Prior knowledge:
The protein is an alpha/beta fold. Helices cover about 35% and strands about 15% of the residues.
Amino acid sequence: MSEDYPENLIEFEQRFSTEEQCRQYLFRLRWPQGFVCPRCEGQEAWQNCRQLWVCCHCDYHASLTAGTLFQDTHKPLRLWFRAMWSVTSQKQGASALGVQRVLGLGSYTTAWSWLHKLRRAMVRHGRDRLSGDVEVDETYVGGLSEGKRGRGSEGKALVVIAAQQDGKKIGRIRLARIHDATAESLEGFIQQALMPGTVVHTDGWDGYNGLEKLGYHHQVIVLRGKAKSAAAEVFPRVHLVASQLKRWLLGTHQGAVGASHLAYYLDEFTFRFNRRTSRSRGKLFYRLMEQAVALEPVQFKELCGGQNSPQQVGVT
């Protein structure tokens, strides 16, 4: 299936006004070359009265939504499509309360769980790692007070940022929450996010000392003893990303992000940032739809860490 998406809200409303239109679009995304049986890979099937595809070779009954983000949903696909359009068409994203109001959902919990499922779909498995010249540094997010500065701030979550250099601009980024600033945590992130051979620019923190042995070109700028503003001048890209991340968490989500779910908000921020120059919001909708079809189903209790509601884990 070639990239096929609505360019604006009017086109979106025209193309996805019925459940059947949504099902047809989802079918083309899931089986771009035509139906393929999940069991035997047969390519001939017929559709029964329950809208299941019945394989002509092995009689397997395949649901269009099974094995995707939409599995077991009791809501119309039209609502899901509207939620995804709302999330991708707004530059800063949407909160659960906003989605609840826009879609007219009776339950805040439904809106909250949908957004968390969509955030999981924003990470494409097997995505390319960063390369070239990349700045890496950490920052703390969360908490009502500034707390003490530097590595070890209490009551906050530690986030490591990698920002690719694109001339004087920022290329792609990667973010991750880490438990501490030890070499084990930092090196693990870098190996996942950066290609070997990448030139990695960091400060003089000991946690980065082993990068040369891992196959990276390590450029160190020691900041100890310099003014606090020096870090932002030496590593302007990671500091700009950190600043925008904090503003986004406070602005869109009012800072009400539970520590156990922070990683998924980081995924959303990364998804948005890396596509910030896209001229078509519809293309973001298409990319999210593509990845939603490839996402394994996520149960509600998985989203809540085994609890029964987002409120029980302090998430708003």
